[in-house]
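Checklist before submission:
- one chain only
- standard amino acids only
- sequence pasted in full

Submission:
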Amino acid sequence: ASLVSADVWANVKVECEPSWQAFQGHCYRLQAEKRSWQESKKMCLRGGGDLLSIHSMAELEFITKQIKQEVEELWIGLNDLKLQMNFEWSDGSLVSFTHWHPFEPNNFRDSLEDCVTIWGPEGRWNDSPCNQSLPSICKKAGQLSQGAAEEDHGCRKGWTWHSPSCYWLGEDPVTYRALGPLSRRFEQAFVSSLIYNWDGEYFWTALQDLNFTGSFRWLSGDEVMYTHWNRDQPGYSRGGCVALATGSAMGLWEVKNCTSFRARYICRQSLGTPVTPELPGPDPTPSLTGACPQGWGSDPKLRHCYKVFSSERLQDKKTWVQAQGACQELGAQLLSLASYEEEHFVANMLNKIFGESEPEIHEQHWFWIGLNRRDPGAGQSWRWSDGLGFSYHNFDRSRHDDDNIRGCTVLDLASLQWVAMQCETQLDWICKIPRGTDVREPDVSPQGRREWLRFQEAEYKFFEHHSTWAQAQRICTWFQAELVSVHSQAELDFLGHNLQKFSRGQEQHWWIGLHTSENDGRFRWTDGSVINFISWAPGKPRPIGKDKKCVYMMASREDWGDQRCMTALPYICKRRNSTREQQPPDPPPTGGCPSGWSQFLNKCFRIQGQDPQDRVKWSEAQFSCEQQEAQLVTIANPLEQAFITASLPDVTFDLWIGLHASQRDFQWVEQEPLQYANWAPGEPSGPSPAPSGNIPTSCAVVLRSPSTHFTGRWDDRSCAEETHGFICQKATDPSLSPSPAASPPAPGAELSYLNGTFRLLQKPLRWHDALLLCESRNASLAHVLDPYTQAFLTQAARGLRTPLWIGLASEEGSRRYSWVSEEPLSYVSWQDGEPQLPGGCAYVDTDGAWRTTSCDTKLQGAVCGVHGGPPPPRRISYHGSCPQGLADSAWIPFREHCYSFHMELLLGHKEALQRCQRAGGAVLSILDEMENVFVWEHLQSSEGQSRGAWLGMNFNPKGGTLVWQDNTAVNYSNWGPPGLGPSMLSHNSCYWIQSSSGLWRPGACTNITMGVVCKLPRAEASSFSPSALPENPAALVVVLMAVLLLLALLTAALILYRRRQSVERGAFEGARYSRSSSGPSEATEKNILVSDMEMNEQQE
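Returned file contents:
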C-alpha cells in the first residue's frame, strides 16, 4: 500500500453528470449489467471515462461504501494482459496502492486470470478470468465546483469529520486515557492521516490488557475485530496499553506501560447514524446450537468446530501455506484463537488424541495455526489468516529467537504454547469452521457434475472433459481422491461397464492412476496401493525410456496401455472412506531356526541354487520347499524385503519367490493377498495371465542384477519355461533359541555390515546438528553406495520407526544432491518425485525411500558412518584443537569447545568444580539445544555408571538469576517437569543433567554425587619445530638419554612432593595439556601425561 498522506481524506466538491457520484475530483458510476472485462472497459470509454483505478485507502472506502455497497464482486481496471503477473491500470495511471485478498493474485489453476475484481466487505482484490461476466465501475475526471469544501457534518470547531464520528487530536502528552476503539481498516487509515506530521510521537488508543491476561480488549467492551500491530508486537509478555506509532511505523500499534509511558491522544465522538452507509459487518456470529461436521469437535460454549490433521508420514505433512489451503478447500480456516477458553478446549482435544504424557514425549510435535506475518505490507506484524483481530496471545517467551526468519506460528503439544516457526517447515495442522457449516467438496466444473458411484469399499467419479495426466490427478485430490487404481477383475469389470455409458467411441482412452517414476522407471499407483493386478493390451507396456509413462484404460476391451503424460484424456477418480491403518510394531522373535537357515523376526529363510543343478522351475522350487516343511518366500513388507536384499551380496543368480498369477491378479502361495510389492522398472510387464485356469503362468523372481538399481527388485517370468534359484521360508521353532541378529538394530551401539560400520542416533536433530554429532564420534553422516547398504539402513529406520538423516544434501541451493563424503552419487533410492526441494537435505524413511525436507526440520534420528582410520576432513571446521589425552581421559571436540566425560567418577558438586579447574577447564555449561543433544548422546552410553552429570550453574542472589561459572546468564534451559520452582533458586541448590533423558534437574549441593564433564575452549596446539633437533644421530641419542634422565628425576621429585600433600588429586590431572611456548615434543607431552596418571592411580 502507498504511504499515508493527509490530503487523501480531504473533502473537495466536484460537479458530475446525473447518475455519476463525486469524490475528490473524480466522478464514479456503477454499471450493473454484467459483462466481460473487455466489454465493460468499452462501455466506460463510451461514457468518457475508463474502468476504475484506485490510488488510496480513502478512495477504496468511498467505492466500498457508496458505489459497491451490496454488489458481491465487480470489475476494476487492474490487469496483467500485457505481461503475466505485471499488473497495471487500464487508464494508464501508476499502481501506487493495492489491496489484494490474502494469497492473491494467484492465477488459480493456471486458468489465465488476467483481470482484477473487487469483492467482499473490505473491497479486497482478486485476479479472475477476463471472460467472466460481472458488473463494473467507471471513473472519470470531474468538474471542480466553485463552492467551499463540504460541510463539517455538525462537528465542533477544531474537530475533524470521518463518518460516522468527529475526531480531535490532543497534543499534551499524558498517561493512559480512554479512547474509542479502532474497529475498521478504513478508520485506522483516517486516524493515521491525522497523526501524519507528528514524527517520533505516540498516541494512546483504548485497547488495553490491564489485567495481564494476554488478551487485549477495548475499554468500551467492543469486540476486537481488527488489529494493526507493529513488528514483534504485542510481544511475548503480558499486560500493557496500546499506542499508535508515527514516523516510518505510521499508525502501527505498540504496547506501552500504562502508568509510566506518556503519549498524546485522540478523542472520538460518535454523531449517531452515519451519513453514508457503513460497510457490511463481519460474517454473522456462528450459532451456539449449530451442529459440527462428522469428525469435528466443539464445546457448548464455543461457536466453532475444530479438527486436528496429523500423520506420522513426513510426506503427508504440509507447509503453512499448504495447510491453509487444505483447510480452505474444506470451507474452513487454519485455527485462530480469540480467548483462553477457546485454546483450553483445543488443548484438551489434543490431549484426548495424543494422550497426556510428560512433555518430553511430545517434544517437537507442532501444529500450524493461522497466526502469521507473511503479508509484506503489514510491517512484519502478526495477523490471523481468517481476519480475526489479534487480541489474545500465548507465545512461549523462552523460544522466540531468529524471529526475522520465522513468519508463521505453531501450537507446541509439549508446552501448549505458541512458537514462531519458518513457514516452509512441514508439520501437522488444525482447522476451524463455524458451527452449522457443512464441509464442502471443492468445485471443479460442469463436466464433473455426475454423482459418485459406489463399488465395494470405494467411490468412483468419471470426468469426461480432457486433461493431462497430472492435471487429472490434481483435480482428483480436490475431492480427497486419487486417479483410479484397479486391484481385481471385478473392479475392472465395474469400470468397463460404466465407461460404456460415458464413452462416445469404443476406442476412447481414460486416464487411470498407474504411472512410472521419473527416478527409476518403476510403475506405481498414485494412491500408493500395491500393484497386484495387471491388464495390459498386447504389445504394452512399451520398453522403458527416459520419459515418464502414464497409463490409460480402453473403454471397450478393458485393456491398459501407456501414453505420453501430456496427452489430454478423460479420467476416473477414486476415493475410499476408510483411513489407512497404522502398521503395528514388529513382534519380537519367539523362537529360533535350524542350522543352515537365517532368522529375521519370526521367520526362517534359506537361499538355494548356489549349485546351477539346483536351479529349477517355479513349481519345482515350491515342491522342494515343501519337502523341507516350508514354502516359497512371502515378502510381506519393506523390512522383510530389506533383510532379503541385504542377504544377496554373495548371490549371482535370480531367485523365485512365492508370488504368482494364474489369472490377471498376483497373489502369494496359499492365496495370501499381495499387500506389498517391489517391482523392477517397467514391471510387471510379461504377457497377462490367461483369464481362466488355476495353473500359474507368470511367476515372480527377486533379481540379482549386475545393475545395482535392479538388485532386490521383482520381475515376472514364465513359470514353466525358466529355471532359477529360490528362497524358502518357514516359521521359527519355539523350541529353539532366537538368533542374536533376528531383530532390527537398536540405537546407540555400533553396527557392522559388509565393510562398513554404522551408529544410529535417536534424538531430535536438524541435518547440520546430526552431521556435527556424527563428527564428534569420529564419523560422518552415512552415505549409501549400493542396494545392500540401502537395505541395511532400511532395517535400521524401520527398527527405530522413524526417518533417519543420511549424508546427502543439496549443492548450493539447487536440486542437485551430493554426498558429504564426496563419493559419487552412483546409486539412488529416491521416492517418486524426489528430490523436489532445492536447498534441502535427504533422509531415509521407514519404507526405505529417500525423501527431502528442509535441513532445519527436526527428525527423530540419524545414521552415522563410522571411520576405521583417521577421520575424513570435516564438513564444518573450527579454529583450534583439543588436548591429546589418554583413552579414559580424552578430550572430545565439538564446535568451539572440548569436553572430557568421566561418568565413572561420582563426586560432589564442590569436588567436581575442583577437578575441572585442575584440568584447565570448567564444569559443564550448555548454551543451546544442540550442545544439550551432544552431551546427552555421550551420557547415554554411561547411564549405568551414573544417573547424571553436574552442571556448572549457580544462583546469583544479587541479580536473581541463574548464571554459569563465568557469570554469564543462563539463556537456554531444558528443565524436566515440573520445571524449576522458586524454592530451588537459592545458593544452596545445585543442578545436573539426567543421563537417560537429557533433561535438567535441580538438587542439593551436598550428600549427592554425580558424574563429571569438564569443558574448555579449543586452543592453538603447541607447535613442533624439526629444526630444534640435532641432525647428528649420535647427538640425538645423547639428547634422548638426557630427556629420559630428566623425566626420571622429575617423576621422583613429584612423587616425593605428592606424599606431602593432604589434598586429594584425581584422574582429571591426566587431561592437563602443556601450552608452553618452548614447544616440547609430542613424546615428552605423552610422558608427562603418563606420569600424572600414575600419580593419580597411586593416590586413589
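Reviewer check: The chain has a mean pLDDT of 77.
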